[in-house]
């Protein structure tokens, strides 16, 4: 984990540095780019793992550093602080930050055309529509409360009619019946629920008015201006990775058992399930990351309904056109 | 060999065996919330199946905890010595010291993750977790020395430094060691909490996060046990060293000299006021300096002025204030109750430790487990057992507060000189009478010190419960604010919770000084 230098590696390093100093500069040195992912390593980021393994970023002249995420990592903050050049974010948070706090972000692509977040319940006690939530207890990660409030408001449901409690990413309370439903990735948690001997029932928030992207690719305006070519290169390489990964969603996750997925605490079968389930939410007629005018309008309309004022200018589709 | 046979026949071993057996049976028949507590064998089987995953995670956690532990303790012992040599410095930094201790880790973890890179957030959180405990223990140890020994050194022409070297540092060793003992689990927990949130690739916290989604209690308990093992081993090392050195520095006879009055009285009023003002302002200055030094943009990092602006001067200030007050109204009452409960529990245990040493030997391993089981792993399971009401909040609060208070109290009771104990015994007093008339009054300074130690932890416990179980109060507000990218509120909650802890701390300090002065007792820093 730590980067240690002993005498031998130091001498080797110095020798290499000395040798390379005498060489002419390469025509195009790889430029370093850092991306901040939204969560720990799982199938949600398969496209990037594949593109890194197969050298698609280096083909484009990029030297990519990949930072995994976690509950305390707010991807937007990482790019504001200058610790990453590009981040995968939730669009409602990003657009709220632009419109209310004047953050200088641009959305240059969207991994999920349809947000995989949904309301997950058990088949024996199903929650099929937002209206079914009335009188129920639903567990929501505190950071996502705003999204559920959007769902309720868009469907004309009184916020006080639903008992919202914190969700700690553990499906056990749902399976045990302590809660009636939870907000989670519909591509992920139904697998575990199945293993625990129950059948999951879920609906996407997307299908009930919350027509949002997810894992939107966000950069600061400054990065966009200064590193445009690198960003286009990143989009191109990542798209290649995603296309290849989704061609057969069950092919790659098992190959990463001892690399990207080693010791994550999750099972490979779970990742295959995830990768398969997310395919339809990612693939788009306009190519991976596509943001069609219609889709952008839908995003803005959904946000408008919950009082977040986004504009078309917050999205920059010109990089995708170059890809 | 005889030793080992003695252990096998001892009550401790028998009690522990019974405990494990009960755990196994209860776990196997899924008595507790339909299997939220698996049997020990189920946990061990899972642990064996996962054995390939652990080395990388354990190594990362150990690295971060050890680095944080070493750095935090070096600073703490150094600061403790300085504070004793220059008491004004202690007064000047008191606000800062309490602030460091009262920082809610769940609030600063994201801030550290933002402002520092790689392993640094983990190491910092581990170091912050040990600093206050060790610093206090060092000051306590250095302050409570046998003045007769110091007189001997002075009579031979020794200066303050010689007294420090020959009497006070030696006398402080048991206290510092007991500080290190409590600090060790804190370092591990700090590192794991930063790993949990910070998005690294390795570490038990990361493993825990990935494992939460599996709905497999045996895995979660397994991770908890491994964390406990790491913390327990470090605790054990210092406990053994401590047991070997304790006897050598204790006075054989009782020192009847009345402690000197605080030297603060003879200094001028303006100077004292200046020190008080400095103590109040220093934490805010350091907060400001930290933000300026890390160079994090204003949008994310709020300075003290930024928080004032957010709360009182901006267009949305009234909304922010309303949210904050509503949250405080939910958090404060339960914190007060939780603190009393934790303290009461610690007190009862400390007395039991005196009355029934065997019971406490059995209980200690369980107590340690509750200190090192990462609460993020257990809260979903606790919710199944206790629901999402007051009881789960109280349970979590007691579990995070009682341990340090307990260790301090036991220490206070143990330090009662043998000669004082001999008196009631000579008169044939029962153990209870002896406890009531001698040990408990003698431990009073330690009870006050324990109370001061408990306040910030009670607030932390309540906030964890609010964050993961009840969805109310400051803990929930803090985490919801992250979803809104409401950095102003994140900093406000952290600042307000620290200020509250400091205020409580001073309130108790005031009562303590009055009471102990009246009783003619020395207080414990």
From TrEMBL, chain A:
Start and end residues of each SsuA/THI5-like domain: 44-249
Record-linked PROSITE patterns: TAT
Keyword Metal-binding set for record: yes
Signal peptide: 1-29
Catalysed conversion reaction: N(6)-(pyridoxal phosphate)-L-lysyl-[4-amino-5-hydroxymethyl-2-methylpyrimidine phosphate synthase] + L-histidyl-[4-amino-5-hydroxymethyl-2-methylpyrimidine phosphate synthase] + 2 Fe(3+) + 4 H2O = L-lysyl-[4-amino-5-hydroxymethyl-2-methylpyrimidine phosphate synthase] + (2S)-2-amino-5-hydroxy-4-oxopentanoyl-[4-amino-5-hydroxymethyl-2-methylpyrimidine phosphate synthase] + 4-amino-2-methyl-5-(phosphooxymethyl)pyrimidine + 3-oxopropanoate + 2 Fe(2+) + 2 H(+)
Keywords annotated in UniProt: Iron, Metal-binding, Pyridoxal phosphate, Signal, Thiamine biosynthesis, Transferase
Pfam (any one): NMT1
InterPro entries linked: NMT1/THI5 (IPR027939), SsuA/THI5 (IPR015168), TAT_signal (IPR006311), TAT_signal_bac_arc (IPR019546)
Pathway in which this enzyme or protein is active: Cofactor biosynthesis; thiamine diphosphate biosynthesis
Primary role: Responsible for the formation of the pyrimidine heterocycle in the thiamine biosynthesis pathway. Catalyzes the formation of hydroxymethylpyrimidine phosphate (HMP-P) from histidine and pyridoxal phosphate (PLP). The protein uses PLP and the active site histidine to form HMP-P, generating an inactive enzyme. The enzyme can only undergo a single turnover, which suggests it is a suicide enzyme.
Quaternary structure, from the entry: Homodimer.
Similarity-based family: Belongs to the NMT1/THI5 family.
NCBIfam families tied to this protein: TAT_signal_seq
Stated name of the protein: Thiamine pyrimidine synthase
Organism: Albidovulum sediminicola
TrEMBL record, chain B:
Subcellular location, record wording: Cell membrane
Record-annotated ABC transmembrane type-1 domain positions: 58-242, 324-511
Name recorded for this polypeptide: ABC transporter permease subunit
Coiled-coil positions: none
Pfam families, sorted: BPD_transp_1
CDD domains, alphabetized: TM_PBP2
The keyword Transmembrane is annotated on this UniProt entry: yes
Membrane-topology annotation of the record: Multi-pass membrane protein
Chief site of localization: membrane
Transmembrane segments: 7-25, 61-86, 98-116, 123-145, 220-241, 273-291, 332-351, 363-386, 392-410, 446-469, 489-511
Family under the similarity heading: Belongs to the binding-protein-dependent transport system permease family.
Annotated keywords: Cell membrane, Membrane, Transmembrane, Transmembrane helix, Transport
InterPro entries (alphabetical): MetI-like, MetI-like_sf
């Amino acid at each position: 984990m730590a980067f240690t230098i002993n005498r031998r590696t130091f001498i080797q390093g110095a020798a290499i540095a000395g040798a390379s100093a005498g060489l002419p500069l390469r025509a195009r040195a790889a430029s370093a780019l850092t991306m901040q992912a939204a969560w720990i390593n799982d199938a949600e980021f398969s496209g990037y793992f594949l593109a890194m393994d197969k050298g698609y970023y280096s083909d484009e002249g990029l030297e990519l550093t990949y930072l995994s995420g976690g509950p305390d990592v707010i991807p937007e903050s990482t790019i504001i602080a200058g610790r990453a050049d590009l981040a995968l974010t939730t669009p409602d948070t990003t657009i709220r930050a632009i419109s209310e706090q004047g953050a200088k972000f641009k959305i240059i692509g969207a991994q999920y055309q349809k947000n995989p977040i949904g309301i997950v319940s058990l088949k024996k006690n199903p929650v099929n529509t937002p209206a079914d939530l009335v009188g129920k207890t639903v567990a929501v990660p505190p950071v996502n409360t705003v999204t559920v409030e959007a769902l309720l408001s868009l469907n004309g449901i009184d916020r006080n009619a639903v008992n919202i409690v914190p969700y700690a990413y553990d499906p056990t309370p749902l399976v045990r019946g302590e809660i009636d439903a939870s907000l989670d990735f519909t591509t992920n948690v139904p697998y575990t629920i199945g293993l625990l001997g129950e059948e999951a029932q879920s609906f996407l928030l997307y299908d009930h008015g919350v027509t949002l992207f997810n894992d939107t690719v966000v950069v600061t305006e400054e990065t966009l201006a200064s590193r445009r070519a690198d960003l286009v290169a990143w989009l191109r390489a990542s798209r290649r990775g995603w296309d290849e990964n989704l061609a057969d969603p069950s092919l790659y996750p098992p190959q990463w058992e001892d690399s990207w997925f080693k010791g994550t605490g999750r099972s490979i079968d779970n990742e295959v399930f995830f990768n398969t389930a997310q395919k339809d939410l990612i693939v788009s007629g306009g190519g991976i990351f596509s943001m069609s005018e219609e889709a952008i309008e839908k995003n803005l309309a959904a946000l408008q309904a919950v009082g977040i004022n986004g504009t078309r200018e917050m999205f920059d589709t010109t990089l995708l056109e170059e890809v | 060999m005889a030793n080992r046979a003695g252990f096998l026949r001892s009550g401790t071993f028998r009690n522990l065996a019974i405990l494990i057996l009960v755990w196994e049976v209860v776990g196997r028949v899924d008595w507790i919330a339909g299997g939220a507590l698996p049997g020990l064998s189920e946990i061990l089987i899972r642990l064996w199946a996962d054995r390939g995953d652990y080395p990388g995670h354990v190594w990362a956690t150990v690295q971060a905890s050890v680095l944080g532990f070493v750095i935090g303790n070096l600073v703490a012992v150094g600061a403790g010595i300085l504070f004793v040599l220059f008491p004004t410095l202690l007064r000047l930094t008191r606000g800062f010291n309490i602030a460091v201790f009262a920082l809610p880790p769940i609030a600063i973890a994201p801030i550290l993750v933002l402002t520092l890179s790689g392993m640094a957030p983990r190491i910092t959180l581990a170091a912050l977790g040990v600093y206050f405990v060790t610093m206090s223990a060092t000051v306590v140890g250095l302050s409570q020395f046998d003045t007769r020994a110091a007189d001997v050194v002075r009579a031979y022409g020794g200066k303050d430094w010689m007294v420090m070297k020959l009497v006070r540092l030696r006398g402080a060793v048991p206290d510092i060691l007991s500080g290190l003992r409590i600090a060790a689990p804190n370092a591990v927990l700090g590192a794991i909490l930063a790993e949990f949130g910070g998005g690294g690739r390795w570490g038990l916290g990361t493993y825990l996060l990935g494992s939460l989604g599996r709905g497999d209690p045996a895995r979660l308990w397994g991770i908890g046990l491994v964390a406990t093992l790491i913390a327990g081993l470090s605790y054990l090392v210092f406990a053994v060293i401590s047991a070997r050195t304790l006897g050598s520095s204790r006075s054989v006879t009782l020192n009847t000299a009345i402690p000197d009055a605080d030297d603060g009285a003879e200094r001028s009023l303006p100077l004292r006021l200046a020190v008080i003002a400095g103590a109040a302002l220093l934490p805010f200055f350091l907060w400001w300096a930290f933000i300026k030094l890390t160079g994090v943009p204003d949008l994310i990092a709020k300075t003290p002025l930024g928080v004032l602006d957010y709360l009182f001067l901006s267009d949305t200030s009234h909304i922010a204030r309303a949210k904050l007050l509503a949250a405080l109204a939910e958090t404060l009452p339960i914190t007060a109750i939780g603190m009393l409960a934790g303290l009461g529990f610690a007190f009862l245990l400390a007395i039991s430790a005196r009355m029934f040493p065997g019971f406490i030997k059995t209980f200690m391993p369980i107590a340690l487990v509750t200190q090192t089981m990462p609460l993020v792993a257990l809260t979903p399971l606790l919710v199944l057992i206790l629901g999402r009401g007051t009881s789960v909040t109280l349970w979590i609060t007691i579990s995070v507060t009682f341990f340090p208070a307990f260790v301090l109290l036991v220490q206070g009771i143990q330090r009662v000189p043998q000669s004082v104990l001999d008196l009631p015994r000579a008169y044939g007093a029962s153990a209870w009478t002896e406890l009531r008339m001698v040990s408990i009054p003698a431990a009073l300074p330690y009870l006050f010190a324990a109370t001061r130690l408990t306040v910030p932890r009670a607030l932390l416990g309540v906030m964890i419960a609010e964050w993961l179980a009840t969805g109310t109060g400051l803990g929930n507000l803090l985490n919801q604010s992250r979803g809104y990218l409401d950095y102003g509120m994140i900093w406000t909650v952290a600042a307000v919770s620290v200020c509250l802890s400091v205020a409580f701390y001073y309130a108790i300090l005031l009562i303590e000084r009055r009471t102990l002065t009246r009783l003619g007792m020395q207080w414990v820093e």
